[in-house]
């Protein structure tokens, strides 16, 4: 093969690569319905936010987006299914703080959040709110702490699963008040809330969308929120930080990720579309009514954020000697 033939072959090869890349880009949106995985049962915060976002996202890209709830193992089941899912852009995961940044420090997982899942965009974040049954006799955070300090495990708290944000928030709080509380894991916010209303445990660091209707109806008593400042939708409820535990902060969050081998052009397109939805005025207002703050990010920003969160919660897991139940 002479030089001219070599040059021609090289140019043809580059053209083929360019066309292949363009082909991937043109496969957006995917020709088949898109699945948005959620790791918790219907009715909780993750489900409410995912369905709201999925509806607008589907309208914008012109493709059906089906929310698929795969509850269990603190959300890890949905994350594993996504890690092993189709890489054509037809699967997204509304991933959560627990499986993405906490669970890897507690157990050996069949997936690596930083290797088997690709960041797409931040989703939403919010503080939890510590609530108790209105008939519990507990009227303030001081009452709750006093009950917890009487004896180990005298107070119980629910979570959306071992290693979830609500679980680690409870552990962080137990550390702050120097008391031991009994952890009661559930498969999602909705079933945990049902049992709190039935009086089957003491308290729950709940997501606002799950708790607000029952606070407004008078069935639950809110004691404190877990951010550094009071949320605009709960202005009368003090934070843990201002109630005698300065610096206490535990935010819950959800972010969009996809199977790691999804082509970069498709991941970039999903990022653009999700950021667009999260910046939409109507979507932001609807999420705000649920007590959720939109958190759109660049893909690289989400990676950095996840690594910082992983370091923070990994330290709590080690200090509290938390293991999978």
UniProtKB/TrEMBL annotation:
The transmembrane residues are: none
> Which SUPFAM superfamilies does UniProt cross-reference here?
Periplasmic binding protein-like II
UniProt entry keywords in alphabetical sequence: Signal
What InterPro entries does this protein map onto? Answer: BUG (IPR005064), Bug_dom1 (IPR042100)
Q: Which residues form the signal peptide?
A: 1-25
CDD domains membership: PBP2_Bug_TTT
Q: Which domain of life is it from?
A: Bacteria
Keyword Signal assigned: yes
Protein family membership: Belongs to the UPF0065 (bug) family.
> Would you tell me the protein name for this molecule?
Tripartite tricarboxylate transporter substrate binding protein
């Amino acid at each position: 093969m002479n030089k001219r033939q070599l040059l021609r072959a090289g140019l043809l090869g580059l053209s083929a690569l360019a066309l292949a890349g363009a082909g991937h880009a043109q496969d957006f949106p995917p020709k088949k319905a898109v699945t948005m995985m959620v790791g918790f049962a219907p009715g909780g915060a993750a489900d409410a936010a995912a369905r709201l976002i999925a509806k607008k996202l589907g309208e914008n890209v012109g493709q059906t987006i089906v929310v698929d709830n795969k509850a269990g193992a603190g959300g890890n089941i949905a994350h594993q299914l996504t890690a092993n899912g189709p890489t054509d852009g037809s699967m997204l995961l509304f991933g959560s703080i627990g499986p993405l940044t906490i669970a890897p420090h507690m157990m050996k997982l069949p997936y690596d959040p930083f290797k088997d899942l690709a960041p797409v965009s931040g989703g939403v974040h919010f503080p939890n709110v510590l609530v108790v049954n209105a008939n519990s006799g507990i009227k303030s955070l001081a009452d709750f702490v006093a009950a917890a300090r009487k004896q180990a495990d005298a107070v119980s708290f629910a979570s959306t699963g071992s290693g979830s944000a609500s679980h680690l928030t409870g552990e962080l709080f137990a550390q702050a008040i120097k008391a031991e509380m009994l952890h009661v894991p559930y498969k999602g916010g909705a079933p945990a809330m049902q049992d709190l209303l039935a009086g089957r445990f003491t308290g729950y660091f709940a997501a606002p969308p799950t708790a607000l209707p029952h606070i407004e109806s008078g069935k639950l008593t809110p004691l404190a929120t877990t951010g550094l400042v009071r949320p605009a939708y709960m202005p009368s409820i003090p934070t843990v930080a201002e109630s005698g535990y300065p610096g206490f902060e535990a935010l819950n969050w959800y972010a969009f990720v996809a199977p790691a081998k999804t082509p970069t052009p498709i991941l970039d397109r999903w990022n653009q579309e999700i950021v667009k939805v999260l910046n939409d005025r109507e979507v932001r207002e609807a999420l705000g009514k649920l007590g959720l703050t939109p958190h759109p990010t660049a893909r690289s920003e989400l990676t950095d954020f996840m690594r910082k969160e992983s370091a923070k919660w990994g330290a709590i897991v080690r200090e509290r000697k938390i293991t999978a139940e």
